[in-house]
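ok so I'm stuck.
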Amino acid sequence: MNKHTLDVLIVMNEASKDGEAAIIESDEFLTAVPGLTQVELDDIVKELSLTECIRLRYHNGKDYCVIALPKGRLIVENDIRSKTNTPSLASFDPNQITIKTDYKKIGRHAFIGGFLGAFIASAIGIAIDIVLKFVL
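replied:
not stuck anymore, here's the structure
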């Protein structure tokens, strides 16, 4: 994704907060992104729509009605994080986590679970025995 495309996507994400539709004039893009022409802007908006970074509701030549989609928000967020050197979830390595296992706690839970299971099974067996004595 080139610089102009990313800048246009940033403007769209700022305008379309919480996934709501936003109407943005083409002049806003042209002033926010220096060196951008109207033809390039149309191509960028088409590209962002095709790659499902935004949803383009309508375009009348002057205004764009867009909705920023989660994919586009993620691209902008990753760009911001890469500029600030903040680690993202994409760079998360689960092998770096150490997990301490408490075997006494596991043993206690297994004992209590086994005891309760046996107690419930015995209670069901006794209930069936009583019912069968009265029926037969």
